[in-house]
Each structure stands twice: as structure tokens, then as C-alpha cells.
Design goal:
By secondary structure, the protein is of the alpha/beta class. The protein has 27 helices and 17 strands. It has a 7-stranded mixed beta sheet. The longest helix has 28 residues. About 40% of the residues are buried.
Length: about 675
């Protein structure tokens, strides 16, 4: 070891604490050797997804196939020894082992022979995906029932003639003892687990699709993940915190896309009071503007259900517009008073003033709006909101899922020289960072703005915090959802009211903020990364939020490769608009691969017919050398740990700290 003069006096207390974990020179030396070895392992594979929007089947399939990474591994291993149909069958078995085994056992004539061949194939795949990890990390990923056996199979090969019989006997015994099915399931799960080291979600798990709660249940069990919150996640967080305007938006969006599964089945939110109120209040209203958008499973909704959904949709929308106006009036500093549109209606003429221009309303039926006090809830509306708010307040599962978002999430993150955030960093027209005012009337921009918003969001869920600040934080969820300078929205307005009630599309326009106009500029991307302290020659910004319109020729890779937008439209509602069904990004030891997906048919199709998501891979950026753990954030941490341990060794060798016997 190179002799280095350490400032022992300054660090002695810390070194004494460190010596409790490494009480001898041998212990500290062994750990240094271990950490140095880890630094030279290949970089783990990172998986980036954005804007999942409740499409749980497609999401779970992408997790299971690791955006095609498992299929690629199978092709590399068995490219010349297996037919395409056989490789497809093997992949399906890895993705859906329980279901596929039932089909195989019903059709296979010699199941023991099939078991023998398949187990050897699965072991080969498992050995390949585990090769970039330490034995310790692999061991921690193994199911306890089969941990020892899997370890033996991973580290012994049939090519070694001295071990051929040993390996074959293990396989034969697994089959003869009736554990083959369980062992196959265990191996498949280990392959899925080790194919992705870390999952990054760039926001918007919620809304539109039917299974956001299922996605959150999946994430509760997932080994290593993080999320940068999206505007739709924030909306649900606001609803959970008690923001009634957010509650209305959540319900309205669920009704708009005829996807009530997350609300009713996932979280048990009781919508019967809303249905009763809607039928009593709007029974004479055609509610044409509020007919649900049908796609996927909701396309089979009958006329009676569509009619009831439209009534409920309008009822909650009217309440939403009132509550939003009340919050905006409480916060004039937001400059969103123009969203109080009920005040701009001439109820006799059926017209409305928007941007100093008069428009005819599509519908002028507002039985709950008092022209003198247009933003005041009626007594019946208030009773309804009290019931709905209570449903959100007492739902333990929703609160558990929001806690999960809080513990794994943030407004932005920096990981391995990549800056991750959902939508934007507010900019001025000249490309400089834009200042945004938040509580208590202070202005922030860039990284500081994101950090302050992160803290404000958490304040809403802290009962011991300042009550005035907590109330402001709860209100602020609405601004984050639809405020002009919100990093999660960043548009001139959210024209929900205009889309429902005004035919002229000029009123529907939502002008995007300057970030979206300037993000194609490499200098702007560099400026933003500099301001966030993102370093390194191969740094990137990775976003979601705005679907990439591939069918119109839009490219998801911008700013000369320094910015990537990976929202290609997971949601079925976007498929016709974008022409694809989403992007995922894979960052492995050899570089970045952007995977473009076609629509996922169904889990049933994947199991029965071996269909996979058809994907096209674009090589975004390949490294000149294979990246190792040393090249990552984890590598920086390990090098610091090594430096600390070397300082501890110095203290041992020079008598500053005395070795002691390890406790047995």
C-alpha cells in the first residue's frame, strides 16, 4: 500500500466507529480487496420508463422481458442451436413461468425430457445474466428454498468433464423429487430480477389506464427503483393529501377515459353518492360533451353505462371548476384568476368571454351555478364533496401507495451523469432559468426550485409542520398540476373548460413553455446540466411527459443526443396519436439503447401464442470501452469507502487504533 500521511487526529472518531465493523487489519484488507474487485465488474443495467398511465399489462410485460434484454440474451446464447419458435417458447417461459408450465404439461408427451432440456437452458441464461454481479449479490437475489442448488448450478459447468455427472445428477434429482416446476419458476424469477439492476420511472404511473394500483403493488415488491414524480402522480398525491380540486380531477379523468377500476376496485372509492347526485341534477341534460373516451377494455361499455358516466363526468367537472377557482382566488400570486371562467359567462345569452373575445357555449345548462356567486358550491355539492373527500382520506391502500411514491420519489434526480425529471425546468425566452414564486413569497429557479418544491410536497403530509404552510402545500398541488410555471406542466393554461364548452379550437390551445421550444438546442441542454451540477463527457437529460409523435416524424433524441424524451405513449388513448406504444431506455455496460414499442396485445396472447411486444432498438450512444462499476455513482462511493479503509489501515499500522478480537 502506498504510504500516505492522513489527518488522523481529525478523523479519529470516525475511524474508531469504522473499526467496529472492521476490527482487525485482516478485516479491513479483505474489504478493500472486495471493493476493488467490485469496481471492475461491468456496470449494472439501468431501465428507464415514463408515462405508464395505468397500462399495467404492458408495463409488467416490459419489466418481465427487460425491454427485450432477455430475448437478446437468449438469442446470443442459442442463436444457432435453437429454432426461432424454440427461443420464443423459452422467452415466454421466463416471462410467465407458472402459466406457461400449465400449457406445456398439457401438451408435452415426454415431460421429463422437456424438464431436463429446459432446466439446462434456464441455467445457461441465468448464468449469463448473473455474470456481471458479485456472488454475494446474486446469492441475495436467490429464493431461500433453492439458493444452494442454484449457486451450485451457476458455478459448475457441464463442459468440465469432472463435474458433468455432478451437474446432471442435480438436474435429475430436481425432476425425480417433483420440484421441477417450482425450480423453473424460481429460475425464471431470478433471470427477470438480474436482467435489470435498477429501474427509473420518469413519472405518471396514474390516470387513463385501468391498473395504476396494480403497478404500485408491483413496485412495492420491486428490488430497486426510483421515480421522478409526474403531474398525474402529483394529482393523486394532492387528492390523498386532501386537495378537493385534485380529488375532482382524479375522478373526472377516470370518468373521461371510462377507467374506474383503479378508483373503485383498487382503492374502494365509493362513487355511488356521485352517481345519485348526477342522475338527480343532470337527468335532463344530454351531456354530449362528457361522453367518455372509449378504448381498450372500456370500448365494450353499453349505452346505459355511457349515459351514467357522462352525467357523473359533468357533475364532477362543474364542481372541479368551482373549487379550482376558489383556490386560485386564495392565491392571486399564481396569476391564474383567468381560470375562474364561470364568472365570464352571460347565462342569458349562453356566451362566454375568453381572452377578451366572446364565444357561444356548446351547452348553457348549469343548474348548480349561481350567476351572482358562480364559484360557490351548492349545499348538495358540498355534501357530496364531504363524502368523496372522506373516501380518499380513509383509504389505507391509497395512502400506502402515496407513501411509496414519497419514499422512492423526488422532483428530479441525478444518476450516473444523467439528469432525470418528468417534464421541464422552467426557462425564460432567452434560455435562462426562470424564477418561480412559492411559499413564503420567495422566488427560486432551476435546481433550487426543484428542491424547494420537493420539500413543499412532503410538507403536505407532515401533521407536525406549520399549519399555514401545510395548507399552502396542499393548495399548491393544484398549481403543480396545471400552473403555467409548474415544472410538471409548463404551459400557458390547462384548457379543460374550453374543450368541454367551446367549439372554437383557438381557445383550446395550450402554449408550451420555453423549455419545450428550446430543448432541441445543445447549448441549452448543457446550460441546464451545468446548473444542476451534472458532470462528465457523456451526460444527458432524460424526460417524459410529452408524447413523441413518431408518425409525424418527430425524433425522441434531441440536442445532438444530449436530451432524450421517452414518452412514446404507453396509454392506449395515445396510440392513434403517436403511432407507437411507448419508449423505454436501456443503459447497460456498453451504452444506451432506446427501444420503441408497438402496442401490446395482451398477457393471454403472450402466454398462449408466445407473442412479445414488437420492439425496434435504436443505438443512441455506445461507449468506446465497456463501462464498469468504477465509472458509475456507485463507483465513487466505493472509492471513498476504499480510501476510508486505507486510512483505517494506516491508523492500525501506526498505533492510533488498536486491533481487537472480532466478537463471535
Amino acid at each position: 500500500m502506498t504510504t500516505i500521511r492522513y489527518d488522523i487526529d481529525k478523523n479519529l472518531r470516525y475511524l474508531q466507529l469504522l473499526s467496529q465493523s472492521f476490527p482487525t487489519i485482516a478485516d479491513a484488507s479483505t474489504e478493500i480487496i472486495n471493493l476493488q474487485a467490485i469496481l471492475n465488474l461491468p456496470k449494472g443495467t439501468e431501465h428507464f420508463l415514463a408515462d405508464i398511465h395505468g397500462e399495467y399489462q404492458a408495463f409488467q410485460h416490459v419489466l418481465k422481458n427487460a425491454s427485450g434484454n432477455i430475448k437478446r440474451k437468449v438469442s446470443e446464447l442459442f442463436g444457432t442451436t435453437l429454432r426461432e419458435t424454440e427461443k420464443r417458447e423459452l422467452c415466454t417461459l421466463i416471462y410467465y413461468p407458472e402459466q406457461k408450465l400449465e400449457l406445456v404439461k398439457a401438451s408435452e408427451d415426454d415431460i421429463n425430457d422437456w424438464y431436463h432440456i429446459t432446466l439446462h437452458q434456464l441455467v445457461a441464461v441465468c448464468r449469463d445474466v448473473s455474470s456481471k454481479y458479485t456472488r454475494s449479490k446474486v446469492r441475495k437475489s436467490l429464493p431461500s428454498d433453492f439458493s444452494y442448488i442454484i449457486q451450485e448450478l451457476l458455478h459448475e459447468r457441464t463442459e468440465d468433464t469432472n463435474k458433468t455427472a455432478y451437474v446432471n445428477v442435480i438436474i435429475d434429482t430436481i425432476i425425480s423429487t417433483g420440484r421441477a416446476d417450482d425450480f423453473i419458476i424460481a429460475l425464471a424469477n431470478v433471470i427477470q430480477r438480474l436482467s435489470i439492476d435498477q429501474l427509473h420511472i420518469l413519472g405518471d404511473i396514474y390516470d387513463r389506464g385501468p391498473g395504476a394500483h396494480i403497478i404500485m403493488d408491483t413496485m412495492a415488491r420491486y428490488h430497486d427503483w426510483d421515480i421522478t414524480w409526474g403531474n398525474h402522480d402529483i394529482l393523486w398525491m394532492g387528492a390523498c393529501a386532501g386537495n378537493e380540486a385534485c380529488i375532482c380531477n382524479v375522478i373526472r379523468l377516470s370518468l373521461r377515459y371510462a377507467n374506474l377500476a383503479t378508483l373503485e376496485e383498487g382503492y374502494g372509492i365509493n362513487l355511488v353518492p356521485l352517481a345519485t347526485f348526477a342522475m338527480e341534477t343532470y337527468q335532463d341534460d344530454p351531456c354530449k360533451e362528457f361522453k367518455p373516451k372509449l378504448s381498450g377494455g372500456s370500448a365494450k361499455m353499453d349505452d346505459k353505462s355511457q349515459r351514467l358516466t357522462a352525467l357523473m363526468h359533468k357533475a364532477i367537472a362543474i364542481i372541479q371548476f368551482k373549487l379550482e377557482a376558489q383556490i386560485c382566488e386564495r392565491h392571486p400570486e399564481w396569476n391564474m384568476q383567468d381560470r375562474a371562467l364561470f364568472s365570464n359567462i352571460d347565462y342569458d345569452k349562453g356566451t362566454i368571454i375568453v381572452d377578451d373575445k366572446e364565444y357561444q357555449l356548446r351547452s348553457n345548462y348549469f343548474p348548480t351555478v349561481d350567476p351572482k356567486h358562480p364559484n360557490r358550491l351548492t349545499a348538495e355539492e358540498q355534501i357530496l364533496m364531504d363524502k368523496l373527500s372522506r373516501s380518499f382520506k380513509v383509504c389505507e391502500k391509497l395512502h400506502d401507495h402515496i407513501k411509496l411514491l414519497l419514499s422512492h420519489g423526488s422532483m428530479f434526480s441525478i444518476c450516473n451523469n444523467n439528469l432525470l425529471f418528468h417534464a421541464s425546468v422552467p426557462l425564460n425566452a432567452d434560455g435562462t432559468l426562470k424564477e418561480v414564486e412559492i411559499y413564503p413569497t420567495k422566488k427560486y429557479s432551476g435546481k433550487e426550485l426543484m428542491h424547494k418544491l420537493d420539500m413543499l410536497i412532503r410538507t403536505a403530509f407532515q401533521n407536525d409542520s406549520d399549519e399555514e404552510k401545510r395548507k399552502y402545500a396542499i393548495d399548491y398541488f393544484l398549481y403543480l398540476w396545471c400552473g403555467p410555471d409548474s415544472p410538471l406542466f409548463d404551459k400557458s393554461k390547462m384548457s379543460t373548460f374550453e374543450r368541454y364548452f367551446i367549439a372554437e379550437k383557438e381557445t383550446h390551445h395550450e402554449a408550451k413553455g420555453d423549455y419545450f421550444k428550446l430543448r432541441v438546442n445543445e447549448e441549452i441542454a448543457d446550460y441546464i446540466m451545468d446548473s444542476f451540477g451534472v458532470e462528465g463527457p457523456n451526460r444527458h437529460i432524460i424526460n417524459g411527459h410529452v408524447p413523441v409523435h413518431v408518425m409525424n416524424g418527430e425524433n425522441p433524441i434531441k440536442a445532438n443526443g444530449k436530451l432524450m424524451v421517452i414518452d412514446g405513449g404507453f396509454s392506449q388513448a395515445y396510440h392513434e396519436e403517436t403511432g407507437i406504444a411507448g419508449y423505454t431506455l436501456v443503459y447497460h455496460s456498453r451504452g444506451f439503447q432506446l427501444v420503441q414499442h408497438e402496442p401490446f396485445t395482451s398477457t393471454e396472447d403472450a402466454i398462449l401464442r408466445g407473442t412479445d411486444i414488437k420492439s425496434t432498438t435504436q443505438i443512441v450512444e455506445m461507449s468506446t470501452h465497456r463501462m464498469h462499476v468504477a465509472d458509475t455513482d456507485k463507483g465513487k462511493e466505493l472509492r471513498q469507502q476504499i480510501a476510508d479503509l486505507e486510512e483505517l489501515l494506516y491508523a492500525y499500522h501506526h498505533g492510533f487504533i488498536t486491533e481487537r478480537e472480532r466478537k463471535k
